[in-house]
Design brief:
Two copies of one chain form a homodimer.
Chain A lengths: L12 H8 L2 H12 L16 H14 L2 E6 L2 E6 L1 H7 L3 H10 L17
Antiparallel strand pairs in A: 1-2
Chain B binds a DNA duplex (30 and 30 nucleotides) through helix 3.
Chain lengths: 118, 118
DNA sequence: TCCTTAGTTCAAAAGTTATTGAACAATTGG
DNA sequence: CCAATTGTTCAATAACTTTTGAACTAAGGA
């Protein structure tokens, strides 16, 4: 770990809700949840926003305690802080992710108009 | 009913999360949940914010589909849209309210420094 | 060493949200 | 009718948030 993260008990409910109340960040969290255990780097999310803007949103998620970012080489490996979130706010993350999965209007990773060449 | 409300299927997850991501509105929702079934008027929330500001926050909650406001005489009777929220986002409201109840730092109705004379 | 890749930082611009007070409407009770 | 009560609207301002591009750092490979 390298960048500043709140401890589990510093995670604040209104801040988490506000941070999740953004379609881009919700898409990031949803994708992280779908790949749980697999640390992802920022480039996975480039179809959601520009590199600079992603850096901003990922910092918000990290500062809120929703994600953890670990510097490995020139990459940041990003994971969901599921255990901390579940401990602090039982059931919240699951219901948010389930609701997001059921919403066709939400942006999602790998759904962008610009499709990646294989 | 008098003021504009979204239908159940128009309720949007990111908007609901963003609206709940504010301590004043979270306090309102929490209090409504604790008095479920009892329609409350705005004056119940005057220890959270000014009348004007409450009007603003209550409009946000209503427009997001979190609450229902019915005009009765000169009052607005406000209720939680629990059934609609539970249908759209199962478990979300309960986990948010439970998390809010466990947070000592959140403002709450009837907790203000200025106590009401009996 | 030089180049590329991965991501951050900074400052500016644009957009949105929150808060305020003064003025307004509508209902109700005297 | 008059006054009080309840809440809204409006305009202004303050305070954030989001988005952008250009410049930057740091690691890794040729």
């Amino acid at each position: 770990m390298s960048l500043p993260h709140p401890t589990a008990d510093q995670i604040s409910l209104p801040i988490v809700l506000a941070v999740l109340g953004d379609p881009t960040r919700l898409a990031i969290v949803r994708y992280l949840a779908s790949k749980e255990g697999v640390p992802l780097n920022c480039s996975k999310f480039l179809d959601l926003a520009s590199k600079t803007n992603l850096s901003y949103h990922l910092a918000k998620l990290r500062e809120a305690g929703v994600t953890r970012s670990e510097a490995v080489g020139t990459s940041r490996l990003i994971t969901l802080r599921r255990d901390d979130l579940d401990k602090r706010f039982p059931g919240l993350l699951d219901s948010v992710i389930a609701a997001a999965d059921g919403d066709k209007d939400l942006p999602a990773v790998g759904t962008a108009e610009v499709e990646v060449s294989a």
